[in-house]
Amino acid sequence: MMKLAFQIAYKNLMGAGLRTWLNVAVLSFAFVIIIFFNGLMDGWNRQSRTDSIAWEYGHGHLQNDAYDPYDAFTLQDGHAEIPSKVKNVTPILVQQGNIYPEGRMMSVLLKGIDKEQGTIKIPTEAFTTSTAQFPAIIGNRMAEAAQLKVGDQVLLRWRDKNGTFDASNITIVDIFDTTVASVDSGQIWLPIETLWEMTGLHNHATLAIANSNYEHVPIEGWNFESQAEMLQNLDDIISMKKYSSSILYILLLAIALLAIFDTQVLSIFRRQKEIGTYIALGMTRLQVVRLFTVEGSMYSFLAMIVGCIYGIPLFIFLNAKGIGMPQASQEMGISLADRIYPIFGLQLIVGTILLVTISATIVSYLPARKIAKMNPVLALKGKLQ
Amino acid sequence: MKTIKYILVMIVIVGSGFEVQAQNLTANEIINKVDDNMSSETQVVVSDMVIYGKRNKRTVTSKGYTRGKNDSFTEYLAPAREEGTKMLKLEDRLWIYSPSTDRTIQLSGHMLRQSVMGSDLSYEDMMEDRELTDIYEATIISEETIGDRNTWKLELIAKVDDVSYPKRTIWIDTERFVPLKEELFAKSGQLLKKVVMDDIKQVEGRWYPFKMNYKDVLKDGKGTDFIVKEIQFNVEIPEYIFTKASLKK
């Protein structure tokens, strides 16, 4: 019986011609857009997480109590010697300074890091090969903002622990390329020993980045923020982005479902004689309702097939080539690559198929319920009920 | 005005003696004479602070009352957005009153490192009122001519750790006992700031610079000008001026 319902539904749909294909086209578009947007967000999420861990978070940060990453004014006092019992961490000392590229004053954060570290991807090996008195590493964004290249010197002014001004030329020994703006914009990386020497804050650190062997035990004066806690911010931003972009595809899906609903209402009104005939031939009312519901939900199957025809090559292409992100958006605090490679997971695709199919079936069923209340004789006569 | 007073005080105040001889005067005597010439029990100054930006300039007019070396009160008169802002300094404490919020705040710690009204001067620069001889060791290193004036060139090297500028050089007019130029240096010897005094006039028997330019030399631009419009020495200032209550009046 179900097979017959499918056959009749298929024939009816094909018979309707352009109207069917318009519905299918809109629905398939909604289908592809949903997968595309979610794939993009998942791709961004994965890339951001991987890069943030590699460049900034490591396996968590041990921060001085007086230091607040969101308040630059805490840098003056937010540092101390890291207790010697703390192992498997890379200490970072953060201080403020100003550079004067081409007579402009720029405020910068000076970050001292161990030359030998391997915890994060900042290319500190460049310090070991340099002979400059004040070797410095900067990121692409900083290099662009200050118009600096490898080998350039720039005047840096800073204060030591007593507040006394000091100034000297630093030499840019390497420029790294990262998607993580928060280790790049407005920052200059120096060997930590050099920064200790410059400021007189020997053995002091503002924070320490844990590596994979770090085991946390509470230490007085220091807070530990785990990798998962740090990633939570990123997850929150991305899930918020997901919600805001869902408005677009909810709208598209709503239009497609409205079209199916309208088509169903019209079909039932115009095909009263056909309904009467089905019942006269022995079909129960429920079977006729099922037939019309199958017909409506078949739009989603056709939409899936059409969506696959143009969606699969498109997704394969995007997955391989990535999607370019505008330069301006990379200046934001969150990690964003210049190309994002969307991820189209099985869960996403199956979820979208279920969403579209179930919602198309529901909107097909709603008008079809009317059939159950029809008088077959009046229906056969084609009289309005 | 407090700012001008500060710069001058910063340059001239001394207490105890320097050893080096210049002609017949020691560095100590030179600076004492400058101090006698320029400081007074009280001072009331109306002045303009001209802040030069990249494309434009801003003029902030203020009236300042100073008592001794440590107490001062400044009221900003123009432009409209700064009008009514008041600043009170008593010893080592500084309060600012903003009429738009009707709040008085005490500046401390890192906030003192911020610039005063966008100028090249920081609040911390203004707060420094220790005597130069307490923090610097002075030497007369040469005699030079600036414009048509003969000057002594004094070098001041910090003898304590907690100073912003570990070295200063000051040029002092040999006849009028007025500082004409000052340079402030970083620990590495890098020149950071330059102060130039100009338009020296005689008022109430003392020589006084009516124009000063304070400039961060590492930055392009013309720095900040302080122009004295009116100045009175040793006038009676009511006691209530130097109280927190006067900020809200």
Question: Quick summary of this structure?
Answer:
The complex is a heterodimer of chains A (385) and B (249). Chain A has 385 residues and is α+β, with helices and mostly antiparallel strands.
Helix and strand layout, with pairings?
The complex is a heterodimer of chains A (385) and B (249).
Chain A lengths: L1 H15 L1 H40 L2 E5 L15 E2 L7 E11 L6 E8 L11 H5 L5 E5 H7 L6 E7 L5 E12 L10 E5 H8 L4 E2 L1 E4 L11 E5 H44 L1 H9 L4 H37 L1 E2 L14 E2 L5 H23 L7 H6 L4
Parallel strand pairs in A: 4-8, 5-7
Antiparallel strand pairs in A: 1-10, 1-11, 2-9, 3-4, 3-6, 3-10, 6-7, 12-13
Chain B lengths: L1 H11 L8 E2 L2 E2 H12 L3 E11 L4 E11 L3 E8 L7 E5 L2 E6 L4 E5 L15 H5 L4 H4 E11 L2 E10 L8 E7 L5 E7 L5 E13 L2 E11 L7 E10 L16
Antiparallel strand pairs in B: 1-2, 3-4, 3-15, 4-5, 5-6, 6-7, 7-8, 9-10, 10-11, 11-12, 12-13, 13-14, 14-15
Explained architecture:
The complex is a heterodimer of chains A (385) and B (249). With 385 residues, chain A is an alpha+beta fold. Chain A folds into two domains: 2-53 and 232-381, no CATH class; 60-213, no CATH class. In chain A, 50% of the residues lie in helices and 18% in strands. Chain A contains ten helices and 13 strands. Chain A has helices spanning 2-16, 18-57, 125-129, 140-146, 192-199, 227-270, 272-280, 285-321, 346-368, 376-381, and strands spanning 60-64, 80-81, 89-99, 106-113, 135-139, 153-159, 165-176, 187-191, 204-205, 207-210, 222-226, 323-324, 339-340. In chain A, strand 3 and strand 4 (106-113) form a beta hairpin. Chain A is elongated. In chain A, 38% of the residues are buried. With 249 residues, chain B is mostly beta strands. Chain B has one domain (2-248): outer membrane lipoprotein receptor (LolB), chain A, CATH 2.50.20. Chain B is 13% helix and 48% strand. Chain B has four helices and 15 strands. In chain B, the strands form two sheets. A 13-stranded antiparallel beta sheet of chain B has the order 8-7-6-5-4-3-15-14-13-12-11-10-9. A two-stranded antiparallel ribbon of chain B has the order 1-2. The two termini of chain B are 18 Å apart. The model of chain B is unreliable at 12-22 (pLDDT under 50). Chains A and B meet through strand 6 and strand 7 of A and loops of B.
